[in-house]
Structure formats: structure tokens, C-alpha cells
Amino acid sequence: MITNTSALDHARVVTSIATLEHSLFGAGAWSQKLIEDELGARGRSYYVNVEMMARSTPTRESGSTVTTRRS
Hints:
Elements: E1 2-4, H1 10-25, H2 32-39, E2 47-49, H3 50-53
Antiparallel strand pairs: 1-2
């Protein structure tokens, strides 16, 4: 189910995105602080697939994704 991140536990969203970032981009991954800043930026909305967030270790191989949309 795709859900706006504002309806979810902020710390869990940030941690999940940071884990995925690290898995996909390694040393080039965004920091948790940068992710927090981006999610809190004025005039933006972000959405995540909560079924994918429930998986314990998101990786490229598991197909886990975080979908973002700015509005």
C-alpha cells in the first residue's frame, strides 16, 4: 500500500530509507540528516510502499523500493 510519509512514524521512515540508500549507493548514500531534511522540506510530499518497509533488510535483490513524488 502506498502511503504518504506524514502518516507514518517519522523515525522508522527515515531509518528505512537510510538502510535502502546504503544498500543501493554505499558510500554515496544520503545521510539520515539529509533524508530528514528532504522529507521535511516545505511544499513536498513523499510516499512509500509500506509493504516494502515491513521487510527487514531492503536490498536491490529483494526488489524493495521507495517511491517518492514531489507535489
